[in-house]
Amino acid sequence: MATQASRITGRLMLSPAVILLLLWMIVPLAMTIYFSLLRFNLLMPGTEAFAGFENYQYFFTDPSFWPALANTLTLLLGVLAITVVGGIGLAVLLDQPMWGQGIVRILVIAPFFVMPSVSALVWKNMLMNPVNGLFAALARGLGLTPVDFFADVPLASIIVIVAWQWLPFATLILLTAMQSLDQEQMEAAEMDGAGWFWRFLHLTLPHLTRAITVVVLIQTIFLLSVFAEILVTTNGGPGTASTTLTFLVYMQSMLQFDVGLGSAGGIVAVILANIVAVFLMRMIGKNLEG
Amino acid sequence: MGEIALSQVKKSFGGVSIIQGIDLTIADGEFVVFVGPSGCGKSTLLRLIAGLEDASSGTIAIDGRDATRLPPARRGLAMVFQSYALYPHMSVRKNIAFPLRMAGVPKAEQERKVEAAAKILNLVPYLDRRPGQLSGGQRQRVAIGRAIVREPAAFLFDEPLSNLDAALRVSMRQEISELHQTLKTTMIYVTHDQVEAMTMADKIVVLNAGRIEQVGSPIDLYRSPVNLFVAGFIGSPKMNFIEGAEAARHGAHTLGIRPEHIAVAEGGPWKGVVGISEHLGSDTFLKVEVAGVGTVNVRAGGEVALRYGDAVALAPQADKFHRFDATGKAL
Fold it and tell me: In chain B, where are the structural domains located?
């Protein structure tokens, strides 16, 4: 923008949107911080009082806190690993010319359109149910004892469900990136004597780094707040085996009606998300430059 | 060694015939240029030789060995692509070393060969840069470097200079010619630019619509084109074609005469009026409207002071006429 006048006009024009967005973020955050400093239980209305950092102290010393933190990170890393590796694999396969390509691609994308609670219910009742589930039927057909997924491997089961939902997203982004790979480079490598694997390692994979970064960053934002899948399937149990930070916050504020403690947990979750984000940007953010 | 022999090579894509039966022998050490208008199949022919496309029928032999079904890597050929096709995330050094690395050449030898290639191509200061940090001409040289370290039986160039600006194209053209003199390796070069073909080739293969129109040295093609297509394609500016009474007078259906073989001369047999004239300093290209003959392009000396609308007499050199019959074949 060239002139003083146009700069000022530009700022004026932008300001309503910026102010609205700022309020949208600041007001809930400020209220959460405020609540986190109060002794505030919904069962005892009218007894709210300033409590300092008491809520934080209780949250950190809660026996569920460390398991919840570990579960959150396990869920995050597990889903990221499955979706990135699986997404690359699917993208490579879908990039091959084949009959019915359009239909197959739509089918692969489909899970992304299913609501989290619905897909969790489908997995819970139709696939992983130890009595009626498809996996149980398969196991019995092979003469094995069916696995009670949500009782024996609750967190792993949730990781599979969430990964199933996010795999299409990763595949879509990676497939798009794959299609922009220069075919002449591939042919040059072929003439240089590079077999399929070497071409994948030296050309395809480096070409995909930026797309992989995008997948990891975007998924991290959403995976830290996974909730419906846990609520529908395991309710955080057995014990704390599948309780994540998000779910812990829900339990404290909505099941124990302790809004103050829940708010403190929410703030801790926000800080944790920021720490993860800083780490991620440090590690892979440079892939997005240039 | 790098002798390449094609016999009855055909290629069609989904029923559309692109290459229609090519027979061609390329001797070891020869610089052969495939030239033709776009869509004539010259790039496809090169890709068939490289092994990037499978021939629909016919055989391709390299050094007497049937290579028709061999994968590209085992044909011992190196290719330089139009887009350079450098690996963007590898340094220049790694790009050039890549084929050696794939061939399992020991590290020390890789290093030595890369250095040697870089020296030939003046790339030494750029070895640790990425392709993205290089200019077009430098990228082109890296692509050539990647080809020469393999010491291939033959080099294949697919319109390597078409992404460069005019001045750079001339200097790269000379560099490639010099490289050919140094290495004495067979080179096959595809271009649509007949100037590149004329200046670089030992042997030109003129292609049109998937067929070979004529094979010969540049001067052969210039002197005695076998048909109208070659006559019109080789030479710049284009040969004049004259039909009708004037052609019949010389016993031909179509009469061809190159602009440089027509002189502006008092008392010449063709009387005409000057149209557009282009003064290039060294030459002047005149478009002359000659009564009974048609529009004739003439290459005159640089100092000719003819202007639009001036009357002029032209004298074509009688021994430089090319005569063609009704089917376009030279008589």
Answer: 4-231, 237-324
Helix, strand, or coil here: B61? strand
Class of domain B237-324: mainly beta
Domain B4-231 has CATH 3.40.50.300: yes
In 3D, which of B11, B8, B2, B118 has the Cα closest to residue B55? B11
Q: How far apart are CA B16 and CA B23, in angstroms?
A: 20
Give the model's pLDDT for residue A149. Answer: 85
Structure tokens at A85: 């590796």
For residue B157, the cross-strand partners are B80, B189
A114-137 pLDDT, tens digit each: 888 999 999 988 888 888 888 888
pLDDT in tens, B53-78: 888 888 999 988 888 888 888 888 99
B325 is written with which tokens? 């019959």
String of b and e for A184-200 (b: at least 16 CB within 10 Å)?
bbbbbbbbbbbeeebbb
In this prediction, the answer to ipTM > 0.85 reads: no
pLDDT digits (tens, 9 = 90+) for A50-74: 888 888 888 888 888 889 999 999 9
Q: Which of B47, B87, B90, B133 to mutate to test the interface with A (most CBs of A within 10 A)?
A: B87
Q: Is the separation of the CB atoms in B293 and B262 below 8 Å?
A: no
List chain A residues with CB under 8 Å of B71. 190
Q: What are the tens digits of pLDDT across the range B79-104?
A: 999 888 899 889 999 999 999 998 88
> What is the mean predicted confidence (pLDDT) over A219-227?
88
Q: Which residue, A280, A223, A272, is CA-closest to A65?
A: A272
CA distance A193 to chain B (A): 4
Number of domains in chain A: 1
pTM: 0.79
Torsion-angle region of residue B251: left (phi > 0), alpha (psi -120 to 50) or beta?
left
C-alpha gyration radius of chain A: 24
Kind and range of the H or E run holding B79: strand B77-80
- Whether A181 and chain B come into contact, CB under 8 Å, resolves to no
Tokens of B298: 């003439």
Q: Which two tokens stand for residue B133?
A: 């940090």
- On chain B, the residues whose CB falls within 8 A of the CB of A207 are 88-89
Domain-embedded: residue A287 = no
